[in-house]
Amino acid sequence: MPAVQNIRTLALLGHAGAGKTTLIENLLALSGAILQPGSVEKGTTVCDYDPLENEHQHSAKLSVACLDRSELRVQLLDTPGFPDFAGQAMAALDAVETVMTVINPQNGIEISASRAMLWAQTRKLCRVLVVNRIDAERLDLAQAVSDLQAAFGRECLPVNLPAGGAQRVVDCFFNPGGEATDFSSVEEAHRAIVEQIVEVDEALTERYLNGEEIEPEALHDAFERSLCEGHIVPILFASARSGAGLAELLDFIVRLAPNPCEGNPPLFEKWPHGNPDAAEEIKPSHDAAAHVLAHVFKLEVDPYLGKIATLRVQQGTLTPDSQLYVGDARKPFRVAHLFSVQGKQLNPIQSAGPGEICAITKIEELTFDAVLHDAPEDAAIHFRPLPLPYAVYGLAVRVKRRGEEQKLAEVLHRLEVEDP
Description:
Blueprint: E1 7-14, H1 20-31, H2 51-56, E2 63-69, E3 72-78, H3 86-91, E4 98-103, H4 111-122, E5 126-131, H5 141-152, E6 156-158, E7 160-163, E8 168-171, H6 186-197, H7 202-209, H8 220-229, E9 233-237, H9 246-256, E10 268-270, E11 280-282, E12 293-302, E13 306-315, E14 323-326, E15 333-334, E16 338-342, E17 345-348, E18 357-361, E19 371-373, E20 381-383, H10 405-418
Parallel strand pairs: 1-3, 1-4, 4-5, 5-9, 6-9
Antiparallel strand pairs: 2-3, 7-8, 10-11, 10-20, 12-13, 12-19, 13-18, 14-15, 14-19, 16-17, 16-18
């Protein structure tokens, strides 16, 4: 069980076709979590495991993948990009500290990317922009940066820059000198970052105004504070296909992305007497020895395992022997089986602590957005509801042949359970 300080959890959002699934697949391969990257076109990726996803060659549901890097656990959530599956994408927001919005510069800023940035800001999450496919032909990446700043604010600043005709990427934060880049310069990008983040720290501001050269290591805390406050939105460049910028992206996650203690707290609320209008904010302690507090952000129905609930532990420690309550239910259930999650693969584990994502199975009482706890006095704790979009049209469904009503009922039940 990794210490909470050694966990990084990020969701990749963006429009369909931006390359989120391929990006995660290549990060898994780079870290050694898988032997070689799979392909969306061949249906061999970790995150797109549903037969319908393989048939249509795009993500249709939220999925989880994990990797280990520099003694840290990195948990990555892959989300669908089509607006039809917005509920599945939004569900990822409540399980992470950081949202990485993936941009395809060939198509510009698409609607799902704009929505992802707004959702992340509303849920008080750290925001990062990843410009993917930088090696595509006829791209103006300098203009892409200008477009991102026009759409999302001047706080959007490059933390690395493409070089060598987009064949590699050069760091601009830890490497103030740097080398020649395809546009702008490392010195200019580094200066813009420093000027932006010193504003959140009076001591650093004074040092900067006095003309003192501030080492990148001394800027780390101010960078993370700026990230949490939305005072900076880093822009990173990468190509999932060629591998350019992937090592730098992973390095950014390890060195600068917040752990659960550093990020903004999850949006738990206490509803006295079940009244959401009188909600009081609750901050989990992230203490492994405290009462258990966990949140279900994904449900799936498997023909063999039954209901699979994917959840994130925010406080306390889960074990197979844990007795948990679901919300304000008075009767507890026993966990029995506890799993780590890697796409569709579930691996038995003995415990899950603060910050970890895990799964439990065969508990019919579990629902999407349920809060799990092991203390009756926590029955009034809820997670702030997501502003899920309303359906814009309805459809009537009927069977082609008599006798198939039961099959249709099973499918509709599965859809009802799985869709947030």
